[in-house]
Amino acid sequence: MTESSSTPARSQNTSYIVNKNGADQLVNILQRRPDGQVYVHYDGFDKRLDEWIPGTSLKPANESARKRRRGTPSPTPTESETQPDLLMTEEEFDIKHHKQITAQRNFDKVNFGQWRIKTWYFSPYPLTDSELEDSTGLPGGSASTSKIPGVNRATVRSHGRTSDLLAGGLTRSHLSGEKSTLWVCDRCFKYMAEGAAWEMHIKHCDRRHPPGRKVYQRGAHIIWEVDGAKDKLYCQNLSLFGKLFIDVKTLFFDCDNFLFYILTDADSQRDHVLGFFSKEKISYDDYNLACIIVLPPYQRKGYGMLMIEFSYEVSRRGGKIGTPERPLSDLGLRSYLTYWVATLIRFFRRLLSVLPPDRPTITSSGRQPDLTGVLPPPSEDANSRKKRAKGWDGETPDSNSTFTTPNGLDDTIAAMRTVLTVSNPDGSATSHVVVRSTLAEIASATNLRIEDAAFALNECGLLGSTLEGVVGITREMVEAVAKERNVKRMCLDPAHVMLT
Is the pTM of this model over 0.85? Predict the structure, then answer.
């Protein structure tokens, strides 16, 4: 059996032009194959879009074209290229090796249940015994002959994390065809290199749901809390699978210090995993989330927002103000900005409303109604109930929880509400709500970090109007942002949280 090998591109600074989707894109070559295929990175785009393409589709990019397209001079050698290697710590050494090794995906696709998914990033899956035998049969007689430029083979005892990455990437990244496909059980996340072994496994795998305990259930959607110390193998396999779609987090095989929250969708047979997030059991920075992933077949359906809202609910019930671990990926920053903006907008809507959202009219006798606080919703007569909208997978939400959020008006903020009522010529009156508060008070009321709240307010344009250091926000401005950002109601219903 012969295997196709790949070699690193000789010049990392050589750029080419590729026509993709009708537009010319600047690319850099990362790897070459003897069959003419090249592995390219699209300049200015995320690494998940890197791919193998025919070498014949490349066109050299001259300097004038580069300057016209990018408006910057040609790249200059980096400090690491112009200066000799300096002494570095073991952690810096590992990080350098990690970046070099993970520059290229080691699997092209992964078979996961009924789905065949294109992977996004490198994941350090260890080599199986059969793969080690295959690699030693390659020309050169040893798996260690496969080499990434600038990376020396580490022993198992030294730089253990780097050797894990090497074991998972050095040989497999050079394989093509079926060998570039990973097979993963969608019940227990056990991984296999061959489809026959995968088919045999799924016939006997009897896991119907993730281990651990239920911490949220609404209809068919359940969030499970799994302890990485108690279910170590399951969490290790889950982390390896998630790493195929996460780039900025470094994966460790020691999951003892992490809790995993897994979102599933139940049918009559079992629970299907939609995504998960992890968090440290003890975080001195009060991070409420380490990494989050929604599996590609289930993205853009609100599941990521549900898990983000749940992570903040966990922090709120623990008496902490949480924030996600940095750095955030481009997709992560986009999702969190959406959450922060939506949380603030929903809060401002309640704060700057004379009447609560679920009380369009108030009827009083004898005295004028008290409009300084949020009034409780009216009791619902069983004979006057209307047909309610169905929630996720057919469950019927409680009408009283339709507009409920954990960010209601607490006593501190409610005390700052001043209702100004002005009489009209026809005898009626118009009421306006005036609130004076600090950014810290708004952040505390919405359970957000001050810096996260300030970033969201600035991004959505609500910090643009200032007078002597005071920011003015009107209800009209809030509604304009809500329309522009397409702010929706919460995905999470706190009434269905099962944390004690």
Answer: no
